[in-house]
Amino acid sequence: MKRVLLCLLVPLLIAVSVLGLGLWTAMRDPVMRPLTVHMRDWPTHAPAMRVVLISDLHVAGPETTPSRLARIIGQVNALRPDLVLIAGDVEQDRRISTRIYDAAEATAPLARLRARYGVIAVLGNHDYTGHNKTDLPHWLEKRGITLLRNEAVRRGALTIAGADDLYHGKYRERRLDHAARALPGPTVVLSHTPDIAPLLPPRYALVLAGHTHCGQIVPPLLGPITASSNYGLRYVCGLIREPGRDVLVTAGIGTSGVPLRIAAVPDFWLLTFEGKAPR
User: Fold this and answer.
1) Model pTM?
2) How far is 192 from 196, CA to CA, in rounded Å?
3) 67 contacts: CB under 8 Å, gap ≥ 6
4) Cβ–Cβ under 8 Å, residues 166 and 192
5) Which of 28, 141, 204, 209 could share a disulfide with 194, CB 3.0–4.6 Å?
6) 217: which DSSP letter?
7) pLDDT higher than threshold 70 for residue 12
8) What is the pLDDT of residue 266?
9) Helix (H, G, I), strand (E, B), or coil: what is residue 123?
10) Are 88 and 127 in contact, with CB atoms under 8 Å apart?
11) Bridging pattern class, strands 83-86 and 151-155
12) Edge-to-edge strand ranges of the sheet holding 206-209
């Protein structure tokens, strides 16, 4: 009888431990990942720019409450960025949550972001309802955040082309390309999903995205099971170098599906844009 109880207890303890670790990982402070980006067409006399890329806030309980987001924003502000980019999915619509926050509550901490050239965002698939509606633009504007929907803006020496959500059929290639071409200087594309990369004209050498959560649940030895991408694991995580284009995918801050992260810690990136590296 004791042996039977032991056989039942051990798997239960393992399962509870894994779930506890997964929730702790989902709630921990994100890792800051630094990267220097050398742009061939960076203006000769322009200073380097420090740009923070964050994504997939998914503001919901228990793991990503507004108070946790406020703490992360303090972490970002401490880096004194010139520009902050938000690659979509501010909101959350999953069923397994202790609380879902509306757009007003989810965006409130974002008003505390501080950057020389402001904050720019695009929308993600969770920012739209099943009826292809979103109430987020009003609240982002209220928080002083510039929302790009197949539009482009120039901040400092950098042009940012922001793609609307691909999965809800909101992306418009020609409109995005036309807007970006009208502005001078080196250009980066900000998109919620990295799946936009193969659809872009060749002139866009860098795509910044989120969405994949770096797999979110990454079993030991097996690696990522899915990236929620039409391209399998091609764009699952980190810096992906392809002929003529780099794609940078952040793990994001929150979660989707379940409030757990296994071996896929939350992160954001500190990108330093400057001219060509010396030989």
Assistant:
1) 0.94
2) 9
3) none
4) yes
5) 209
6) B
7) no
8) 98
9) coil
10) yes
11) unpaired
12) 151-155, 158-162, 187-190, 206-209, 245-249, 238-242
Fold type of domain 2-274: Purple Acid Phosphatase; chain A, domain 2 (3.60.21)
- How deeply is 93 buried, as exposed, middle or buried, from its count of CB atoms within 10 A (0-12, 13-18, 19+)? middle
pLDDT tens for each residue of 58-114: 999 999 999 999 999 999 999 999 999 999 999 988 888 899 999 999 999 999 999
pLDDT in tens, 212-233: 999 999 998 888 988 899 999 9
- The DSSP symbol for 244 reads T
The amino acid present at 236, given as its one-letter code, is V
DSSP run (H or E) holding 75: helix 66-77
Tokens for 181? Answer: 């071409």
Which residue, 149, 66, 162, 78, is CA-closest to 111? 66
Cα separation, 163 vs 180, in Å, equals 11
Quick one: CA dihedral 17, 23, 27, 31, positive or negative?
Answer: positive
Banded pLDDT at 17 (limits 50, 70, 90): low
Q: Which residue has the tokens 């929730």?
A: 23
d(CA 33, CA 51): 12
Instruction: Report the distance separating Cα 274 and Cα 194, nearest Å.
Output: 23
Task: Please state the domain extents for the chain.
Answer: 2-274
SS3 241: strand
Torsion angle, CA of 231/161/36/40, rounded to 10 degrees?
100
Q: Which of 259, 248, 43, 255 minimizes the C-alpha distance to 154?
A: 43
- Residues 23 and 261: their CA atoms lie apart, in Å, by 7
- Low-confidence winner among 100-109, 235-244, 258-267, 270-279 (lowest mean pLDDT): 270-279
Neighbouring-strand partners of residue 151: 162
Say what the pLDDT of residue 10 is. 59
Query: Which pLDDT band holds residue 5 (cuts at 50, 70, 90)?
Result: low
Cα gap 90→13, rounded to integer Å:
34
